Amino acid sequence: MAGPFNARQKAILSQIRQEGRVLVEDLAAAFGTTPQTIRRDLRLLEETGEVMRFHGGASLLPGTEYTSFEIRRTIQAEAKERIGRAVAARIPDNTMLMINGGTTTAAFARALATRTGLRIITDNLEIANDLRSIGNFDIMVPGGTVRRSDGTVTGVAALEFLRGFRADIAVIGAAAVDSDGALLDFDLAEAAVARAMMDCAKHVILAVDSTKFDRSAPVVVGWLRQVNTLVTDRCRSERIRALCEAQDVELVESDPVPA
Q1: 259 domain-assigned
Q2: Among 11, 17, 36, 155, which is most exposed with the fewest C-beta within 10 angstroms?
Q3: pLDDT per residue as tens digits for the range 160-179
Q4: Residue 1 is inside which H or E element, if any?
C-alpha cells in the first residue's frame, strides 16, 4: 500500500517501477545525498510493501508489474537500437531463433527486416507483433501466463513448449551482469524462460546495454561462461572484459571506441 512519501521517495519509487531495480550509489549521486539517506528511503519503501531491498539496492517485489513496455523502450533507446543492429548483422538467413522478452531484444527483432527464411520463437507478444509487421517469418509464441505490462509469456506450459525445440541461436537479455559473470533478473518466472532458451540453443547471444554491467539483481538466469557472444554498446567493465577473454566469450561493441 502507498505510504506518506516525500518527493525524493516518490521519485525513487517511480524509478524502480520504470526500471525494475535501483542501486544505492546511483540514487545518492542522482539526488545529491548520502547513501545512508537513500538506504533509509528504501527501508521505508520496503516497510510499506512497495519494494524489496537487496544488498546495494532495491527492486520490484516478485510478481509486481513493470512499467509499460513502451515506456521502458525509451530508456537507453539509441544504444539499444545500435546493439540490436549489431546482433542482427550476425544472424544468417534460414536460421531458427529464440528471442526472450526485453527492450534490447525487441530492438534486435526490429532490425531483422532484411532477413529471410527465419523461424522464430519468442516469449513476448510485443516482439511477436513487431516481427509480424516487418518480415515474412514463421513466428511461434508459447502458451502460458501473459504479463499485462509487457506481454511476456511465462509458466510451465511455456517452458515445456521451448524444450521441444533446438534453435540455432538464442538471443537473450538480462537485467544485470554482475562482476562475477552472473546473468541476473528480477522475476523468477521470466528468468526460467530465458534459462530454457539458453539450454535449447546451439549458440547464445547476450544483448545488454552498458548500464547493466557490474550490477546486481536477486534471480540468477545463468552465467557468462554459458554465452557464446556478448553484444553491447560499450563494455567499460574491465572485470567483464577479462571474463570474456578467459571464458572464450566473443565481445562485440556496437559503439566505436574513440581514437
Answers
A1: no
A2: 36
A3: 999 999 999 999 999 889 99
A4: none
